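Hi Y.,

Following your request, here is the sequence exactly as I used it, all 462 residues.
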Amino acid sequence: MKKVLFIIYTFCILLSPANSQQIPSFKSNDGVVFLGNSITEGGHYHSYIWLYYMTHFPNLPIHIYNGGIGGDCVSHMNFRFDSDIKVKKPTYLVCSFGMNDSGFDGYNKPDSEKYATKQVERTRSDFESLQQQILADKTIKNVVLLGSPPYDENVKLEGVEPLCAKNETIKKIIGMQTDAAHKNKWGFVDFNSVICDINDRIQKSDSTATFCGGDRIHPDKNGHMVMAYLFLKAQGLSGKEVAYFHINANSRKALEVRNCRISHLKRENEVFSFNYLSRSLPFPIDTIPRWGTKGTARDAIKQIPFMEEMNQEIMKVSGLQGLFRVSIDDVEIGNWSGDKLEKGINLAEITFTPQYQQSLSIMYLNEERCAIEKRLRQYMAMQYVFFKNRGLLFADNKAAIDAAKAERESHYLVKYLYANYTEAMFPQIREAWKAEMNQLIKEIYEINKPLTRLIKIERIGK
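Below is the corresponding structure, written out as tokens. Let me know if you'd prefer a different format.
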């Protein structure tokens, strides 16, 4: 309990009050593009954000696009803004940069301070150009800038030498973003300070622990879940319950109901039952690591008050004495005393309730959509990182495949993305992937509507 209170206290200091809103929440039919680097291209934070909306707001359709490219600086985002971002016709743009803009090669050298200053000034100039492009696009109604997650210089990683003071350069770029957000009346969310705080805390007991991945740069799913939480919190969604209901079993009356409907309350012998229809579904916590790494969303919720603030599905039943078996749609979910039932049970913590299982099916469909979209992003990465510099941008012909084949073993990107490109170079393949994603999204918005559940509370002991 003390640990939970400490975590909540820490976040109250680092963030604004729990229910305040710093950036706009998404509106129905918003097209949201997350523009960024490899942390966005290969990451999960935007997918978790969409999953939250899919489950918590099942009747609010939106479309979130991954607009990340590995290795991108602001200058690269400037180049591809029209052909890669603007063509998606976003109504809401979220932009993140800083990790690559802060540079790599110039640290741990005698003139590292001069190098860092040069990186910041170059970023400032390029960012001015990007701001003008964004401001010129009148279809974009909302813009949010994201302060980059940190470069973790402190974690003890064998074989990965830290670049000293790199994160200080990132913080200077974040300061630049803060100024631009204020000037342009844009939103701003800082990932850096909160993840730094988490890293500092966990490294006190384990010097090898980090939320910034195995290379000090790319967060695992744990870091991405924290980023999603911070974004949703900034949208003012803290305190938005899945559902809350308080029923008196003796009077068979619902005393208090929020974001749900209770009906058909019955008490026959030792069984009390009622129908429960929520307007939201619980958020399913991802327990699967990616790419052989360890960090998962489940690890993140041990460090952030996500469950307390955003995943509360509270069932309170008073007027019962003894021990009771509780089932939902004939699925036994637990045994509790009457006192415990009166204090309240968070159903969102129980992974085998029918409604949580419904959410899990949505999560896995969304994960499949995310995986397909990453193939498309990898195709775009090949275009902008490799082919552009060789005069072969979107050529997708024999000359392009020959160039890729020639550097398949020597170029870091081609070695990783060559197999994907040999498929994605054909427009029919890319269109098929897009169609599959659209079908998955359609399926999600068909099955994400909460269903009426029959809850039974049966006395099984004194």
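Residues 20-234 form a domain with the Rossmann fold fold (CATH 3.40.50.1110).

Thanks again,
Q.
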